[in-house]
Design a protein that fits this description.
mainly alpha
């Protein structure tokens, strides 16, 4: 099971409403040979296109991860809004988000 990490903010993800306020989150996805965004979050995003084996494998791996994290002594602190805004600025995402009206913060 190939695993990689991409430590960056994803402001158009399902978990963004939480992450933008500092709640830790991450995205898990399968690797695909196809180009483009796929069916996800479109009217064509239906169960018949789901690869059952991929879903099963991801469910098993995520369950193992959740159990391991829950049993560990690791504490992941929430970040404040200013810190989250700083991450977006470091990744050069702030300017575009401000221009499109997606900037969630009332401060600069």
């Amino acid at each position: 099971h190939p695993i990689s990490t991409v430590p960056r903010m994803v402001p158009h993800s399902d978990h963004w409403p939480f992450v933008r306020w500092g709640v830790p989150g991450y995205t898990v996805s399968s690797v695909s040979d196809s180009a483009g965004r796929g069916w996800g979050h479109t009217e064509a995003d239906t169960l018949d296109k789901l690869e059952r084996r991929t879903l099963r494998e991801q469910a098993i791996l995520l369950t193992e991860l959740v159990v391991e994290v829950a049993d560990s002594e690791v504490t992941i602190e929430h970040a404040d809004a200013e810190t989250m805004a700083g991450y977006l600025k470091e990744e050069d995402q702030a300017t575009g988000m401000k221009k499109t009206g997606d900037w969630p913060y009332e401060f600069e």
